[in-house]
């Protein structure tokens, strides 16, 4: 008689959309976090000791200390995230643990949100919205010189990181009349450059000095930590805007805040922060003055996107458990 196969113990660290959790319950011995209380490091250690599969997300730090406690059964970390900078992937791989992520399904949502920040800054969208909802009644009606922003059409947008999300931003930005420039580890094929009418800059420094708006769309890796360093930020035009929907660590946030305070930059639209969820108080002050638009890491926050991410996690787990290579395996060459 054939023995029934034990369902894998899948520990999920945060609340996921109901439809994803229901499917996980059907397929796996799923340990869910229905209260959505973030797990501390001790709880993560307990999880990796007993799980066959861990499903963390970007709010969990899966570092060497956690991984060194992993039980023998842990063979897969199927992250519910596109970015994997919260996981020590090298250590996981060295311990024979496969890591997967959820690329592709966040692209369009994140590009939409990037575009929202690109528009919000020069056109003063959040500032304007606050005029009618703030405490003071300070709208005396339309006036030719009141609340003037800056035109978007015809300006130069420099995209740092021209992967899926960078290209999706470029497609939208082109429709808004922005001129597309980009810096990337590798130059794009000519056909894509032609379709986007995009200009490639091998030198990030040279690109930065010429842009009106800069959008950060690359992953956070050791090579991109503080890519926009104090030195590089100083290369930007005094009236330039910086938008970041990727990861806070890519910009030296203190240097950025100092420059904004000193009026050495036009403004910044930030969806991600260096010490997330803490936000630099200087940035909050600048936001109150209308120099900065701050968003609480909402770039990919759509119900459809989260369900698609859950589906990817499930496919990765199922494929792996069936003895095949999961579609979204994270390889060292990606880091
Ligand atoms: C991710 O999954 O890495 C995104 O940052 C979520 O918004």
TrEMBL record:
Q: Which UniProt keywords apply?
A: NAD, Oxidoreductase
Report one GO cellular component.
cytosol
Q: Which residues form the D-isomer specific 2-hydroxyacid dehydrogenase catalytic domain?
A: 20-330
Q: Where is the D-isomer specific 2-hydroxyacid dehydrogenase NAD-binding domain?
A: 115-299
Mind telling me what this protein is named? Putative dehydrogenase
Recorded GO molecular functions are:
glyoxylate reductase (NADPH) activity; hydroxypyruvate reductase [NAD(P)H] activity; NAD binding
Q: Does the keyword Zinc-finger apply?
A: no
Entry's family note? Belongs to the D-isomer specific 2-hydroxyacid dehydrogenase family.
Among Pfam families, the record links this protein to: 2-Hacid_dh, 2-Hacid_dh_C
Q: Which PROSITE patterns match?
A: D_2_HYDROXYACID_DH_1 (PS00065)
Could you confirm whether the keyword NAD appears in this record?
A: yes
